[in-house]
Amino acid sequence: MKRFSIIKGFREYCRYKRITTFAIAALALFICSESVVYGKVTLWDVATHRKLATLEGLTGWVRSVAFSPDGTILASGGGDGKVTLWDVETGRNIATFFKHQDPVQSVAFSPTDRTLASADERGSILLWDVSRYDRSALATPDFNGDGRIDFSDFLLFAGQFGQSHGDAGYDARFDLDGDGAVGFSDFVIFAGSFGRESTGSGLRNPSKRIPGER
Prior knowledge:
Number of helices: 4
CATH superfamily of the largest domain: YVTN repeat-like/Quinoprotein amine dehydrogenase
CATH topology of the largest domain: Methylamine Dehydrogenase, Chain H
Strand order of the largest sheet: 1-2-3-4
Oligomer: single chain
CATH architecture of the largest domain: 7 Propeller
Number of domains: 2
Distance between the termini: 51 Å
Order of helices and strands: HEEEEEEEEEEEHHHEE
Largest sheet: 4 strands, antiparallel
CATH class of the largest domain: Mainly Beta
Strand content: 25-35%
């Protein structure tokens, strides 16, 4: 049997906490631990043994977690019956689902990232369409695809303002916080990106060049 060394920081952190579940993202090499006593999810970097972030705002025990296949989204299931989605890069809560009436015991993504399954302790299994929470859509409000977040993108955003999931004209690309409605919180996210450039995998300030870039 192969032996694995214990991550020092992880061991110290968990010494006085009850940990019930964890998950590893194969691509991003993150490890996730759940402190059920405090309702927190902690992200660790396996390579550096460093704690990256603590995801807070949960109520009740965290009973299950799962990374999306591409490692960009983390799903957690709790004793309060909620299923929560997190943006791994930013640590932001991007969606919460409330349909379960009993504690959620397990969550799992499909290989395509498009579907999340959750199961509760009474045997109910729910399937969620999570395709609209794609990381690229959440991180890049370059709505017209010209590589820059500018006034033309604002005009497109303004045309969607006030739309909600279920409305005929609703477009999930403009729902930047993933709460099902295009509102003020999305405007705040958009304003924070205004004037920046899209690299395809995220945003950057045009005054800060990437090493090797011309």
